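PROTEIN DATA CARD
Card holder: Phosphate acyltransferase
Chain length: 354
Origin: Aerococcus kribbianus
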Amino acid sequence: MAETSKWRIAVDGMGGDQAPAEIVAGAVEAAHHFPDVEIQLYGDESALRDHMPADLPTNLAVVHAPEKITSEDEPVKAIRQKKGSSMVMAARAVKSGQADAMLSAGNSGALLSSGLLIVGRMKGIERPAFMAALPNLSQPGDNWLLIDSGANSESKAKHLFQYAQMGQAYAEQVQGKSFARVALLNNGAEASKGTEVLKAAHQALSQNQAINFTGNIEARDVLSGQADVVVADGFTGNAVLKSIEGTASQVMKVVTDALKNGNLSTKLGGLLIKKQLKDTLKSMDYNQVGGALLFGVKAPVIKCHGTANAKNIFYAIQQAIQVLDVEVVPELATRFAEDFKREKAAQSEQDKGE
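Structure generated from the sequence above:
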């Protein structure tokens, strides 16, 4: 099976609040939809098969993993001690070349550690980052990228600069955007705003012609489509991400409750705008955008939402395939390795001069 497969995607079948049922359902759907891709489902074989249909697709393989990493486990300790866990075994499959990408809805810290310590960091990348796709409300169906959305609580200016490079490459190569616009999340639009780190990052981004840097952007403007890529440190980015997800969830609930419980005129009005309302609510459904890509490691590692359902798993697998198809990860790995080599050479010359 693997010899004839276009790509091989390793899926952690035991990670997430709705595992293994929803993970299995999403993996099975993806296997049917992408017959030339091998889906490797890692987890307790008995538990996984309890949720599988009789007509299992031939391109879906079950790999028994007797252990599970929970949300309470300490990340680094867990991946070192639970070598038989579904997450660790999936990561090791990627490292050994048995799989081309992996995804999990499990413990975020453990997945980050698996990416760094097992899959491996790209040479030249100091801090890999999570990158999430979020809705552009001014253009339904379009998404913008938030990087870092939670991997690193603190970042240096150099890290933010690298996030911009990674985000722009993804927006252009995976999303098909021409010369994607990059903005820096800050507490004001002026270049003088923010911490010393943000000011230094702003200056570095402004001076690089290869990056289409549009300046600072405030949190209130990120959903309006003013930027294709928004760069932030992981603490701020994660707070923005959670705020958007929470607001979207509540808005959807308020609107649907109002239409369901309203009077006749409210329900008639709802019917008149049914298509537009459906499209708007659909654009706010994070289950349809896959997961957060851990950018900066040697292969695609995708973090699905902790509450991921079958739809989210399906789209995350689709996302992994798209990333593999355009080869954005190996291209960036080559670019950053060359940058690292140049920096080392420059530092060596400087040391000689001293």
